[in-house]
Design a protein that fits this description.
This protein has 3 helices and 11 strands. By secondary structure, it is of the alpha+beta class. The chain has one domain. The strands form 4 sheets. The protein has a 4-stranded antiparallel β-sheet. β1 and β2 form a beta hairpin. α1 runs antiparallel to α3.
């Protein structure tokens, strides 16, 4: 698995694609973007991980706060099923790309997460897809909160 040279993160886009019943994450860099599918299971795992890292308390079935353990500084988690990973999705950009197979997009499989600094809080995430391609991005707490908010909005839109 090769890590690309660090690129400057310009933004993140998350949208629900009904034909695939998945979320499409697009990581926007200067002059390029990297698409990555997120399954329903993967989206909920990411929300749990982000809440843990951000120190956001969960509520139990009675609506009472559940105390969270201190999140580890660095870890790797499987996001998608590892024994039977999800099939790649297809983005229908144009017929030529679909015919050649270059429109295939991997599914988020593994998240490698590192908490870099305490003040200001910075995080590094390496997303590894089902094709073993890795995409790295660094973000601050505000961007991580925005990313989580985008995921939650699209989960709601998907009615998962």
């Amino acid at each position: 698995m090769n890590m690309p040279n660090e690129m400057i993160l310009k933004g993140i886009s998350v949208s629900y694609v009904a034909d695939e019943d998945r979320l499409l994450l697009e990581i926007l860099f200067d002059g390029s973007s990297i698409p990555l599918w997120i399954t329903r299971r993967g989206a909920f795992r990411l929300i749990d991980i982000f809440n843990e890292q951000l120190g956001i308390n969960a509520l139990d079935s009675k609506g009472e706060k559940v105390l969270k353990k201190k999140a580890p500084i660095a870890f790797e988690r499987d996001i998608a099923a590892t024994k039977n990973p999800p099939r790649p999705g297809v983005i229908k950009l144009n017929l030529e790309e679909v015919r050649s197979g270059s429109a295939r997009v991997g599914v988020l499989k593994t998240l490698q997460f590192t908490h870099l600094d305490a003040i200001p809080e910075k995080y590094q995430m390496n997303f590894v897809d089902t094709h073993d391609k890795a995409f790295q991005m660094k973000m601050n707490r505000e961007l991580l909160l925005n990313f989580e908010s985008l995921l939650l909005q699209q989960i709601e839109k998907a009615q998962w």
